[in-house]
């Protein structure tokens, strides 16, 4: 009886060891790829950011959500330019335009990709609102910025993100020109490889 008891005890002990090893290997895999659970958040007016966000989604998987302003913007380009200019000025005074909250629990994600257009040298105001509202929950998470512009540089948009999320970690941002949108897959892949975010 003692021999049988000892044999059973040893079997249980080794079984527990095997289970523990399996659990650790899963955690190590998540740590190795540097990505964890990923979320793609995008805002678009022209449709360019949606194209890039969807292309990115086909490459890395994860979840994808769109930021939608509570008050729809005009479809007239010239009027939109003036509206964007006014909102950027209002953000400088601490007033952010209202947007929807499409993310259920952002704490579930490790890496958040932010895809947005450039407005008057700044990050588009709806995306600034999103980062402003989620800043505390984005603490310690990796943020990967993809900015789309017609010609201007994106350094101020990166500064906007760092100001809004001072406790997040940032990869090198990707700048895409609007004229390149339709053929941006290779640029996305190269950027993902460079930043180490190319694994599902």
What's the arrangement of secondary structure elements?
Blueprint: H1 2-33, E1 38-42, H2 48-60, E2 63-66, H3 77-92, E3 111-119, E4 122-123, H4 125-134, E5 142-149, H5 155-164, E6 169-170, E7 174-177, H6 185-195
Parallel strand pairs: 1-2, 1-3, 3-5, 5-6, 5-7
Antiparallel strand pairs: 3-4
What does this structure look like?
There is one protein chain. This protein has 200 residues and is of the alpha/beta class. The protein folds into two domains: 1-31; 34-195, 3-Layer(aba) Sandwich (Rossmann fold), CATH 3.40.50.360. The protein is built from six helices and seven strands. The protein is globular and about 40 Å long. 28% of the residues are buried. Mean pLDDT is 85; it is low at 1-33.
Sketch the topology as an H/E string, one letter per element: HEHEHEEHEHEEH
Question: What's the pLDDT, averaged over the residues?
Answer: 85
> According to CATH, what is the topology of the largest domain?
Rossmann fold
* Biggest sheet character: 7 strands, mixed
The counted number of beta strands is 7
State the end-to-end CA separation: 51 Å
> Structural class per helix/strand content?
alpha/beta
Helical amount: 40-55%
Q: Give the overall shape.
A: globular
Q: What amount of the residues lies in strands?
A: 15-25%
